[in-house]
Amino acid sequence: MLLVGWTTARAQVVTTQPYFFRDNTPVTITYDATKGNAALANFTGPVYIWTGVVTNLSTSNTNWRYVKSPSFNQPDPAALMTRSATNPNLYTITFTPRTFYNVPAAEQILRLGMLFKDAAGNTVGRGDGGSDIFVDVFQGGYAARFTNPASGSIQFVTAGTTVGATANASESSLMELIVNKMFGTSGYGITTISYSTKLTQPGRNVFRLYANSGTNRVNDSVVFIVPPAVNTAALPAGTKDGVTYLSSTSVRLKLTAPGKQFVYVLGEFNNWQPGQAYYMNRTPDGNDWWVDITGLTPGREYAYQFLVDGQLRIADPYTEKILSPTDDQYIPATTYPNLKPYPTGQTTGNVSVLQTNQPSFNWQVTNFQRPKRNDLVIYELLLRDFVPQHDYKTLRDTLSYLQRLGINAIELLPFNEFEGNESWGYNPSFYFAPDKYYGTKDDLKRFIDECHRRGIAVIMDMVLNHSCGQSPLVQLYFDNATGKPAANNPWYNVDAKHPYNVCYDFNHESAFTKTFTKNVMSYWLQEYKIDGYRFDLAGGFSQVVKTDDASYAAYDQSRINIWKEYYDHLRSVDASAYPILEIFSDNAETLALTDYGLMTWGNMNYNYNQATMGYADGWDFSGGYYRARGLRQPNLITYMESHDEERLTFKNLAYGNGSGSYSVKERNTALVRDEMAAAFFFTVPGPKMVWQFGELGYDFSINSCPDGSISNDCRTANKPIRWDYQQEPARKQLYEVYRSLMWLKINEPVFENTSATYTQQLVNAGKTIHLSDPSLSVTVIGNFDVVPTSVNPGFQQAGTWYNYLTGATRTVTDPNAPITLQPGEYAVYTSRRITRPGVLATKSAQRNAFRLSAAPNPADATATLRYELATAAPVSVTVTNLLGATVRTLPATSRQNSGAHELSLPTADLANGVYLVRLSAGATQQTTRVLVRH
To answer: Locate the CBM20 domain: which residues (predicted)?
Structure first.
């Protein structure tokens, strides 16, 4: 016998006695732990009610006040439930609302809100769909309604089932029950009435209540539906998963749900009522359901859901837009104008949206050429923490900053619909819908189009290791008693196969999961022109059980096979799309994947940060070079920072080493060491990635809390957005170093390492990198210690070398003559002069173009300023500290001719530290730095 209920009311998770209770009279709450989300079903420990009231002063009809308990994770003796002696899943508690919650007499109690929990708050019983449970407080007057099943509910039963209904009135009444317009039963001077009957005919069977107190009359109804036989029909050709648009007035809906008994479509086109015209056909294999919907208004958005087996309402897993009953109200109209309202009172849970005659997006860039993999410099960012408006429109306006920085790809943290509004996005629920908290789908497309116009690729962080509880695929087959996917779920494992999983683990050996995953991959490439994916937790794509770091990283041929299959699919859709895996596996597995063409993440955060902090333990970052890991292809994307790693500058300032007056904890010193790390990062062949604001020395911890404290609980919390960093000279200097090194990497073929010779010595304090090809040789030297050190530069040949970042020249007679480097001192030398981006202004009568560099002269405590003038001009010099305070000026010279010049800058009376030297020639200025150490 099938007997399932569907209602927007209490769903019998909670019942009250009496049904119509006032705020000043006792009421008994009975909780059935097997209903709702059933997290406490068969629980043996004490159960507490976590409860509050909704009053006339609440901000919404779900806003609790006067919550009964000091803390959610602490037990409140007054909130302890009594377990039934005959049914261990029934719990009761009796109280008088006004005194129990201590609500002031002048405040009106409208509803009781409640959840049920264990003593520690770890196991929580909720209503259907995981929602809060609410019970209305009777406000007086006259009322009568069905109470079992609940008023307005629809029950689905099999033919031949005997069903009954009970109604209650708030005072003695004449009560009558009618079934399908036929008399059932009646009574006079009663407050309760019940009736039962056997149902045999398919379709709707309506129980109606007529109640009359003598002065008031009330009608109510409940519906029992006997589903008709399911029609078996092959899926019409051309049918897509989700919505297939047939015409401006019709669509075909398809849902994959093997083993289910029947499915209706509910929506605004049928007033959310199950009807024969919306009863879905089942395919012969029993896997898919489909139905055609006609009579739609062209261009109108329609909200809809699937009602599965008469009990479960889910949104379309393939929907391109959802409406949320909890999140949408907090999305500003400036972010998402004219957002369709949620159909409050018509249904529950997330709903899908379809729309015929959608206007097509007019792409401006149709021939975008993606950057070569070797040249990739990816900027990873979280939109929420990058621009205050957290929307694509503002991010598009910020592209000039990123383009000037020189990156050629942007990787956005997950932006398909995730749970809640503010999130990193790694809790996905809908895979084909952009999250509305960031803007409209057309805003996203305009952002991508503008990136492509500027030569910037867009990479989508995609989470296909797991889904969270709002996913329709999770909900379709879920075991409420265990709180896990059911064993027959076609897409998910009951238990995760690896220890890093969150939410619910996909089974990538399942044909259903493979089809879904491939559809997701195809969709964003085709619909949004995404340039590739960074696949989160790619190491979890295996059914081999992994219990710890070692087993997770161990060679796994099944995982290799899965990723090869997915990559083959990607190439069949878009051959040049970037396939980036977050996988930290055995080198042999990484070799197999990268040889096949897949790209992998290379986490070098610890090593680079040890070096910037000045600690010899762990400061070898040789592994940033793919060949040092035994890989044959430059498909290793290395990074010093990512969303998952601590920020370099924060650790420099918090934990940096020091010696004497030299301290990495001093801010300007910390930033200079970040520059040095960048010099040894961007010059290593292979694709690179930087995390947002790393180019400005972002110094808030990954675990920073909004109140300024630091806690692991705040890891994914909002972080300060510090565009003001651009106004600080030392941070601006770091930005310029990043910018110059990115430009060098992308524009000089030697860094692609196809025909170049590359060597590195990154073990000791004095580190070196050498690159050579027929057109250019590069030597990078730096001292990561906190005391001076001598380094053999190993220049590739004698002759003139050019300090790329300062413009200074160095005459080399002995390529191996040791160079003593001060702590934090570094240089990037090139065998031919290469102009940094933006250093030389356009030569004209109005602007003077020149290059400025400085070299210290310890012997007489001066610094030598070297510069070149394009046209004759007077020259003046100003020296400031890194806080912007002027400490020295040199009088303006008389008009100097064009060409090379030198000036001496006295430094004997300057304290140790870094100074900014600004040279002005006419209307043009250039700035360089001088490190003073006596």
So the answer is: 243-365
Least confident of 38-42, 63-67, 297-301, 518-522: 38-42
CA 324 – CA 346 distance, rounded (Å): 13
Calpha distance 332→389 (Å, rounded): 9
Q: How far apart are the first and last CA of the chain?
A: 92
Q: What is the pLDDT of residue 856?
A: 59
Contact assessment for residue 381 and residue 412, using Cβ atoms and an 8 Å cutoff: yes
- The label of the residue with tokens 């790209």 reads 599
For 850-932, CATH gives 2.60.40.3080
Reported as half-sphere exposure (CB side, CA atoms, 13 A), residue 66 has a value of 20
Which pLDDT band holds residue 860 (cuts at 50, 70, 90)?
low
- Given pLDDT bands bounded at 50, 70 and 90, which one contains residue 923? low
Q: What are phi and psi of 759, to 5 degrees?
A: -135, 155
- Do the Cβ atoms of 387 and 412 come closer than 8 Å? no
CATH 3.20.20.80 in the chain is located at: 375-742
**Residues facing residue 35 across a β-bridge:** none
Backbone angles phi, psi at 12, to 5 degrees: 65, 15
**What is the per-residue DSSP string for 411-476?**
EEPP-B-BSSSSS-S-SBS-SSSB-GGG--HHHHHHHHHHHHHTT-EEEEEE--SEE-TT-HHHHH
Superfamily of domain 242-355: Immunoglobulins (2.60.40.10)
Mean per-residue pLDDT, 436-445 = 98
Per-position DSSP letters for 257-302, written without gaps between them: -TT-S-EEEEEGGGTT---GGGBPEE-TTSSEEEEEE--PPTT-EE
Answer whether 269's CB lies under 8 Å from 308's CB.
no
Q: Which CATH superfamily includes the segment(s) 375-742? A: Glycosidases (3.20.20.80)
Q: Are strands 636-639 and 599-603 parallel, antiparallel or unpaired?
A: parallel
Q: What would be the CATH architecture of the domain defined by 3-226?
A: Sandwich (2.60)
How do beta strands 688-691 and 377-381 pair?
A: parallel
Question: Given this model, what pLDDT does residue 904 score?
Answer: 82
Three-state SS for 349? coil
pLDDT tens, residue by residue, 889-915: 887 777 777 777 888 888 877 877 777
Whole-prediction pTM value?
Answer: 0.83
* pLDDT band per the 50, 70, 90 thresholds, residue 6: very low
Where do the CATH 2.60.40.10 domains begin and end in the chain? Answer: 3-226, 242-355
Q: Which of 120-134, 708-722, 807-821 comes out lowest in average pLDDT?
A: 120-134
Q: Is the pLDDT of residue 584 over 90?
A: yes
Query: What does the pLDDT look like over 93-135, one tens digit per residue?
Result: 999 999 999 999 999 999 999 999 999 999 899 887 677 899 9
Cα distances from 623 to residues 608, 620, 651, 761, 781, in angstroms, run 11, 8, 21, 11, 18
How does DSSP classify residue 553? H
Neighbours of 85 (CB within 10 A): 7
Strands 578-581 and 532-535: parallel
- The continuous run of DSSP H or E covering 327 comes out as none
Contacts of 246 (CB under 8 A, 6+ apart): 252, 292
Question: At residue 776, what are phi and psi to the nearest 5 degrees?
Answer: -160, 145
- Report which of 464, 477, 458, 383 is spatially closest to residue 431, judged by C-alpha positions: 464
- The DSSP secondary-structure symbol of 498 reads S
Segment among 114-123, 577-586, 700-709, 885-894 with least mean pLDDT: 885-894
- Phi-psi map region of 207: left, alpha, beta (phi>0 left; psi -120 to 50 alpha): beta
Domain 749-830 has CATH 2.60.40.1180: yes
Look at residues 535, 521, 532, 536 and name the one whose alpha carbon lies nearest to residue 577. 532
For residue 628, list its beta bridge partners. none
